Amino acid sequence: MNRKFPEGFLWGGATAANQLEGAYQEGGKGLNLADVLPGGKVRLELLMKPGFNYEIDQDKYHYPNHEGIDFYHRYKEDIALFAEMGFKVFRLSIAWSRIFPRGDEETPNEEGLAFYDRVFDELHKHGIEPVVTISHYETPLHLIKEYGAWKNRKLIGFFERYVRTIFDRYKNKVKYWMTFNEINGATHFPLFGLGFSASSEEARLQESFQGLHHQFVASALAVKIGHEIIPGSQIGCMLVYAPVYAYDSNPENVMYALKEEQIFNYYCGDVQVRGEYPAFAKRYFKENGIKLDIQEGDLEIIKEGTVDYIGFSYYMSRTEKKEKTNEENASGNIIGGVKNPFLKASDWGWEIDPEGLRISLNKLYDRYQVPLFIVENGLGAKDKVEEDGSINDDYRIDYLRDHIKAMGEAIEDGVNLIGYTPWGCIDLVSASTGEMSKRYGFIYVDRHDDGSGTLERSRKKSFYWYKDVIATNGEQL
Questions:
Q1: What keywords does the record list, in alphabetical order (predicted)?
Q2: pLDDT digits (tens, 9 = 90+) for 2-33
């Protein structure tokens, strides 16, 4: 049974500046982390190893983020396509280094500010509300090299200046904000979220959790500042959420799965929504030799700066057992675990679990009782352009249909879900692999892994399907 969604439900799509804007040296923009990440499978290898080299080596690597899909010059065309689908909202991020090219300046870059003015104005022209991520995997490179990124407490002050600047500038244009993208992923990939590569594998947890503490303070300050500057604004956190299943009913595996779920799914949420560190963290820190430097006033700021809603990404679930062999590992699942015998996987090995989304929504709402917003969900797949130019991506439609049905069931369960913005509503550069061939969009972009292509946009079959979904408020799937 297809369910009609609540009145005013926020249908739309999601992107990130570093994956679609391009123009990496235009408009006064400074270099950021994404600009030094090469494309292809090598990206994941570099992300996983300590000691990343933050230099651009054009002779050795290709850097697809430098051009992205050229949204910087084509945003009007793209927003018109979003409007044609009927988007109510569009999730995007602001590139910090467009506003403060080095990250530590006193004065912002006017060209960068003006660019987002134009984007927001264009969205409003089409009746689309922007949903803005303040920091989405693009720490300014100068802050990484000069200060060690979020390992350094000084970044709290630089971030505070940045958020004051954008809140002041866009207070009449943006109501929905999120502070840090997929903040809880930082312990797995500190380079993405925290802007630094761990100095060693042994130091990864200590450095990551200290960096997260600095981000918690910065996020709470952003919430407080946002509420002062933009009355009525909604400022959320953003988590990557993957329910953790026990492999079987062995109590040892159930307990192991619970511990993994606590530290991955709930640690950051507890701090940002409840305003305090969870009880389970004390033992985890003790067992892993983690000692946080928490300065006077930090905990009060965190308590006073709790978020208004939870934005989260959902791509997969995770299955865990205490003792596992290499053969059992779900190698494609980016956050680990063992293979789930009941689930199929995508072309990239990500396990597909729509029922897990309903489970996730219920778990999150039961725990926090704040509005939920699915701000990423989608299927990365290889798309084939037919001779007549059509792209019949029924696999994507099937994936999204099943997940939207699960959302409808969760709403019927009593969950307060306010919106849905599938990831990569237009094809863009993959964050994890730097590939264009891993496509998510309703809109095809003629750009390929080797950098060839015209960048022309075309509508996939899923474009028309999602248009009908929005027009019928989820009743026609």
A1: Glycosidase, Hydrolase
A2: 778 999 999 999 999 999 999 999 999 999 99
Q: How many domains does the chain have?
A: 1
Give the phi and the psi of residue 339 in degrees, each rounded to 5: -65, 135
Structure confidence at residue 38 (pLDDT)? 94
Distance of alpha carbon 67 from alpha carbon 452, whole angstroms: 11
d(CA 280, CA 269): 13
Q: What is the CATH number of the domain that holds 220?
A: 3.20.20.80
pLDDT in tens, 280-289: 999 999 999 9
Which of the residues are catalytic? 376
In a domain, 250, yes or no: yes
| Long-range CB contacts for residues 167-172, cutoff 8 Å, separation at least 24 | 167/225, 167/226, 167/229, 167/230, 168/229, 169/113, 169/116, 169/117, 170/116, 170/117, 170/120, 170/132, 171/229, 171/230
Mean local confidence (pLDDT), 119-140? 98
- Residues 461, 462, 467, 468, CA torsion sign: positive
Strands (E), 112-240: 129-135, 176-180, 234-240
**Residue 291 falls inside a structural domain:** yes
268 in a domain, yes or no? Answer: yes
| Pair of tokens at residue 138 | 């693009």
Structure tokens at 96: 């910090």
Q: Which of 135, 363, 358 is nearest to 265 (CA)?
A: 363
**Residues of the domain holding 235:** 10-471
114 domain-assigned: yes
| Cβ atoms < 10 Å from Cβ of 21 | 31
pLDDT per residue as tens digits for the range 47-77: 777 888 899 999 899 999 999 999 999 999 9
